Amino acid sequence: MSLRTFAAVAGLAFACTAYPQSEPIRIGAFLSVTGPAAFLGDPEQKTLELYVEKINAAGGLLGRKLQLHAYDSAGDAEKARGYVKRLIEQDKVDVLVGGSTTGETMAAVPLAEAAGVPFISLAGAVVIIEPVKKWVFKTPHTDRMACEKVFVDMRARGFKRAALISGSGGFDKSMRAECLKVAPKHGVEIVADETYGAGDNDMTAQLAKIKATPGVQAVLNAGFGQGPAIVTKNYRQLGIAAPLYQSHGVASKQFVKLAGDAAEGVRLPAAALLIADTLPAYDPQKKVVSAYKKDYEGRFNQEVSTFGGHAYDGLMLAVGAMKRAGSADKAKVRDALEQTRGYVGTGGVVNMSASDHMGLDLSAFRMLEVRKGDWTLVK
Amino acid sequence: MLAQYLLSGLTVGAIYALVALGFALIYNASHVINFAQGEFVMIGGMAAAAFIESGLPLPLAIVFSIGLATLVGLALEKLAVEPARGASVVTLIIITIGASIFLRGLASLVWDKKIHPLPAFSGEAPISLGGATLLPQTLWVLGATLATVGLLWWFFNRTLTGKAILAVSHNRLAAQLMGISVRRVLLVSFGLSAALGALAGILIAPISFTSWDVGVMLGLKGFAAAILGGMGSGPGAIAGGLALGLIESLGAGYLSSAYKDVFAFVIILAALVFLPNGLAGRRAAERV
User: Are A249 and A223 in contact (CB under 8 A)?
Assistant: First the structure.
């Protein structure tokens, strides 16, 4: 064996042993950090950066460092597609965590499926996991669950006839469709179905129509942004007596601040993260939500949102799966993700299966009521 | 129900009217459609919210934010429109579109991308009126719009500057020959329409909140109202704004709320096709 071949072989052998240690595990993220969905992507990106840093400081994962490749897809499905292509082909990421909106997620799904990369989406709609796609998972609750949670609560209060008022954005429309679909299953009849536009200043016309509809026992507003706050104010202005429900889309202190006194008595389904401080100690999620809230607020001096929580869950699900698989091998990680059982996250307790790539049930949502400007858990 | 629809239509319509008046002012002085008009509305609301959050009392916050918007309007004219004088009207319009994107971006950086509330001027206890309810803020909106219209009338008919602006709008060259500084007239009308926009933004903020991108839709609706009323006509802008508000509200109430915005834009198309000079526009004496 010549000296040169020896050196080459030795070099190769060295490279083989050194390779797994030095090569980082690559996490690919594409998030709407700017643009109309910045309120989703901004806390998501911060959360991923914070926890990748934390995990690395604690020695990394499987003896390897984590490396975050994050791109700003700005709420644009076309951009998301481009970045996901780059993440898969150029950055060669081991797992994808991202897709702040349903549009961005759905643009990435065919790419992740074709390349065989485990993909944990942070977007809400049911279409992401239904029908089940081999490589695609998601962490946030679906709008269908929100509808069901509200309808269950309505029935518990003895209401059978409800009115629906929704915005015209993607989230609003999707939730409206899901609510209309599951209402009969819960024995709730939708007797009025009104909508409003994205930049509308006044919804009294629609609400007056609902008020004049006979037999309305409760009203559900599907939407996010300033719309639901205006609806809530107009609702009180018209003095409608039926209880008002909002969706998880406005589950933030911002809503209470905007709607002010009008928000009193409004009920909405939300993740446990919102009431981290008042959650009873025996609650299974108490520990994880309090820790996340403390980490996030301590670092960024900004109130936690459920959206950042979704990114936390996405990253931790991936990390957990890699630990159980004992490697970052894509197929093994995918299988391990699907076998996730009893993971307690900020969004709820996750039990995945071959037919359920979200793994949350209705208990993940808490029914909250606004009382004296703060959230109270409805028993 | 009808009373409720009418009231909510009038409230929103009054805001559209104020925005439309801003469009008319600048159009008269320069034949430019200022697409940054909506941004003045946004600056008014956002600045007022920021001033109040920093602890200023409401009246001061209102005065300061109208002042700030006026300064922005003057700066826009001085820094963007004036250097391009002599350029075609289309070029100037494109400049205003650019300015609106710039102002929107700037606002999202200087302030933030959150939605901000503004306290109502005098409480939020609803007032009952003939089977309908209205918020005290609605009275403020209607009252302030009325007062502004009165002030504008006085300004244009009783002051020299106002008359100079009118003269320029009628015949630029003749006005120039009479010794009126067209440049100053332009400056004044940008400042004035920025102040009008800001006032609209502040008045509506307690009802519908404000955020960095609120100007897009309000600007568009104000533009629609101006077209409906006849571009450049003051009374037309007011009539157009109120009509648009009423159409939207009645349409949402009696037909379907899903088509609320559609009504507005169908009306504009119809106005452009069948009534190209608007409700109150002068007949353009164009001969081929």
Answer: yes
Burial class (CB in 10 A: 0-12, 13-18, 19+), B277: middle
pLDDT below 50 — which residues of chain A?
1, 14-20
pLDDT of residue A7: 56
Q: What angle do CA A359, A103, A332 make, to 5 degrees?
A: 45
Q: What is the pLDDT of residue B280?
A: 64
Query: Under CATH, which architecture does the B2-274 domain have?
Result: Orthogonal Bundle (1.10)
Count of CB atoms situated within 10 Å of the CB of B276: 13
Distances A227 to A221, A255, B88, B99 between C-alpha atoms, Å: 9, 10, 40, 27
- Pick the closest to residue A190 from A169, A216, A166 (CA basis): A216
- Which residues on adjacent β-strands are paired with residue A97? A120
pLDDT value for A8: 55
pLDDT higher at B254 or B144: B144
Cβ-based neighbours of A159, under 8 Å, separated by 6 or more: A188, A217, A218, A243
Q: Which residues of A107-136 are buried (b: 16+ CB within 10 A; e: fewer)?
A: bbbebbeebebbbbbbbbbbebbeeebebb
Contact A132, A114 (CB under 8 A): no
* Minimum CA–CA partner of A237 in chain B: B126
CB proximity B257 to A under 8 Å? yes
Q: Is the ipTM of this complex over 0.90?
A: no
Q: How far is B106 from chain A (nearest CA, A)?
A: 14
Contact B11, A202 (CB under 8 A): yes
Q: Which residue of B has its CA nearest to A169?
A: B258
Looking at 3.40.1080.10, 3.30.530.20, 3.40.50.2300, 3.20.20.70, the CATH number of the domain A146-270 comes to 3.40.50.2300
- Confirm or reject CATH 3.40.50.2300 for domain A3-141+287-362, answering yes or no: yes
| Cα B37–Cα B40–Cα B45 angle in degrees, nearest 5 | 140
Q: Chain A residues with CB-CB distance to B under 8 A?
A: 36, 38-39, 168, 194-202, 204-206, 208-209, 212, 225-226, 229-230, 233, 236-239, 254, 257-258, 260-262
Q: Which of B114, B117, B204 sits opposite A201 (nearest CB)?
A: B204
